[in-house]
Amino acid sequence: MDIKEIENLIKFVSAQKNVGEVEIEKKDFKIVIRKPVTQMVSAPQYIQAAAPAAPVAAAPALSAAPEAPVAEKPAVADNLITIKSPMIGTFYRSSSPDKPLFVNVGDEVKPGKAVCIIEAMKLFNEIESEISGRIVKVLVDNATPVEYDQPLFLVEPN
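The structure assignment produced for this chain is given below.
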């Protein structure tokens, strides 16, 4: 099974609502792909915040407070493009601990430039930029696990 087949399998699992896990086993190869369960954690928090404590006075205050941050975030995100993880694995900012980082905040990237490595099943996959721009923020710490489609970098396009 090659990396493209694994990526397609990951996309399939994430697109299906009633599929939470897929396991494939061949002679000397086994892969298990599971969906993250972060949706259930955020839903109860939203329900608790939406419960009004006072009848009329609290409802406008609650709705006014979340609108301000929500209005600010898209203004910042409108001009930024996110480089996302194409797979599940461990995120590395350099090819080895003694090598320089692929990119730092402020660095210019172009399509085809390696921005990080994601290790999946003992395979080190170089992740390349698909856009031109300047790295504004690194969203993931070095040597930490990442999920499929997780934001890794914010890029200001040229």
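Interim note for the steering committee: The radius of gyration is 20 Å. The chain has a mean pLDDT of 77.
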